[in-house]
Design a protein that fits this description.
Blueprint: H1 3-7, H2 10-25, H3 30-42, H4 48-75, H5 77-99, H6 117-123, H7 128-141, H8 148-180, H9 184-206
Helix pairs in contact: 2-7, 2-8, 3-8, 3-9, 4-5, 4-6, 4-7, 4-8, 5-9
């Protein structure tokens, strides 16, 4: 086995990265709350643009962090604070939208559309949990030297593989919940719960 093969082993590289992504991207947070609410209201298929917007946004963010964007946050912490405030504002607006969602039908109505690919991709740049995840991942698992960018591409590949499962699972979970929302009263309560969870995530962003 060559030197590169010795670096990128299952137990020494791929498994630790996969477990890290699973423990961060797979656990409750703004992305997964949004996917659950979207899946419940619009169904699994219409949640897919949001799913892959999250994954694409994460991949682009990893590249930018690897290229040196993380250093800017270290030199000018105010930039990170501004991102937190922007992300918190967006989540408050989204919580209001969820709370005010029509409850007569959980399918998309005229003029009603789920969050899309571009929205969720761009949201990763306002999502402090995504920044923490990707800054930590690049710092912990990238390999210095000639194989640096190879290690970054492999990190992205592992993240894509794991998030392809976890984000689809959250959208599917929301879709399954949607089938149980059989009355307007239950739908109102569900919207209130999702709006509350979305708003509460602002606390964890700004603390």
């Amino acid at each position: 086995m060559d030197a590169v093969g010795l670096i990128f082993t299952l137990e020494g590289f791929y498994l630790p990265v996969a477990l890290f992504v699973l423990s961060t991207a797979g656990t409750p947070g703004p992305n997964n709350i949004i996917l659950t609410a979207t899946g419940a209201r619009f169904g699994f298929r219409k949640s897919l643009p949001g799913v892959y917007g999250i994954i694409f946004g994460t991949a682009s963010q990893i590249v930018m962090v690897a290229a040196g964007l993380g250093i800017l946050f270290q030199q000018w912490p105010v930039l990170h604070t501004l991102l937190k405030m922007a992300g918190g504002t967006y989540l408050v607006w989204l919580a209001w939208k969820i709370l005010r969602s029509p409850v007569q039908e959980m399918s998309a109505e005229e003029g009603q559309e789920p969050v899309g690919f571009i929205q969720m991709a761009l949201f990763q740049y306002l999502n402090p949990k995504a920044w923490v995840m990707n800054l930590s991942m690049v710092s912990a698992f990238s390999v210095a030297g000639e194989v640096y960018w190879q290690s970054i591409m492999l990190i992205i590949l592992v993240a894509f593989t794991v998030m392809n499962m976890t984000q689809n699972a959250w959208a599917g979970f929301g879709s399954a919940i949607g089938r149980l929302l059989t009355s307007d009263q239950i739908r109102v309560r569900f919207n209130m719960l999702m709006a509350t969870l979305t708003a509460l995530s602002v606390y964890f962003i700004l603390r």
